[in-house]
Amino acid sequence: MDCCRGARLAGSVSDADQAWALLLQIGLELVSAQFAAAVAELDLAPAQARALHELDLEQPISMRELAARLKSDPSNVTGLIDRLEARGLVGRRPHPTDRRIKGLALTAAGAKLRARLFARLYSAPLAVVALSERDQRTLRDVLQRVVSKSTGTEDTTDLACPKVSRTPEARIDANAAT
């Protein structure tokens, strides 16, 4: 998909419009493809991967909270959790003060699978790895500013993610061993 062509056809010619078109292209092609490959590799449906992303091992959340985070109807989340629970990835825990509510939390197996998912999703694709280190830092800093402006949060470009010197495959292997 050539989003820059689409931007031109829409009459968008500013640098900002062209930058946005390129971000759309990255999101629609590169990110979507990487996400689809990661969930397929782990035998997950996209909604299951999103649920694993939101759940935690130690901090259970209600079905209603998970539905809100997934921007889904609670009735749809029930079947989703049933399938994850059947695989041993999610468990329902009683609420400490309200027995009508069940908290949803990852199991140890769910936490391990989520670690593998994260290692796969948050490892840069070759298109980014192929950039020079200087270009990678510039890209990270510019995108951080875009995120900060779009969310109204503080610009945290000086608080970059810590460097990990392992390849994506080594991270997956290390996470699978834990």
Your description of this structure?
This protein is mostly helical and 178 residues long. Strand 2 (90-94) and strand 3 form a beta hairpin. The protein folds into 3 domains: 1-41, no CATH class; 43-122, Arc Repressor Mutant, subunit A; 125-178, no CATH class. The chain has 9 helices and 3 strands. Helix 1 (3-9) runs antiparallel to helix 2, helix 4 (63-70) crosses helix 5 and helix 6 runs antiparallel to helix 9 (168-177). Residues 162-172 and 174-178 have low confidence and may be disordered. It has a 3-stranded antiparallel sheet with strand order 1-3-2.
Shape: elongated
Major sheet summary line:
3 strands, antiparallel
User: Approximately what portion of the residues adopt beta-strand conformation?
Assistant: 5-15%
List the uncertain runs: 162-172, 174-178
Q: Helix coverage percent of residues? A: 55-70%
Q: Tell how many strands the DSSP assignment holds.
A: 3
Following the backbone from N to C, one meets helices and strands in this order, namely HHHEHHEEHHHH
CATH architecture of the largest domain: Orthogonal Bundle
Order of strands in the sheet with most strands: 1-3-2
The CATH class assignment of the largest domain is Mainly Alpha
Structurally, the number of domains stands at: 3
How many helices? The count is 9
CATH superfamily of the largest domain: Winged helix-like DNA-binding domain superfamily/Winged helix DNA-binding domain
Mean pLDDT over all positions: 84
Derived structural class: mainly alpha
Terminal CA distance: 40 Å
Q: What is the CA-based Rg, rounded?
A: 19 Å
CATH topology of the largest domain: Arc Repressor Mutant, subunit A
